[in-house]
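Q:
Just now I want nothing more than another pair of eyes on a protein record. Here is the record:
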Amino acid sequence: MPPIRKLLLLAAAVSVGFASQALAHAHLKSAVPATDATVKEAPSELDLTFTEDLNLKFSGIKVTGPKKAAVKIGEGMLMNKDTTLMVPVTDKLAPGKYTVEWHALSTDGHKTNGTYSFTVAP
């Protein structure tokens, strides 16, 4: 096999290896309420679905509302074969914009985090 072909095959193999590592992290797949959604009724829970199974002990959320006020939430639990983090909202949410900061540890040990927002309509 010519040296250039060996080099190209090696580069392709390394690229595939890095791509599969990136896919092994628990990324936010969907949320209820959805990202940037406006809802008519304040949610009683938040459901965050990830691309990988989560370790509940090291995964969670923080919610802030209008004027960056902290929102009281309950203990999270895993659902849907450990890919969905369900967190009850114990505060009554007033109309306004809310930000959810999440952090997740997948069962294979990779950490991820992010934020998204939704709005409760008046």
About this structure: The chain has a mean pLDDT of 88. Residues 26-120 form a domain with the Immunoglobulin-like fold (CATH 2.60.40.1220). DSSP finds one helix and eight strands in the chain. The helical segments are 3-23.
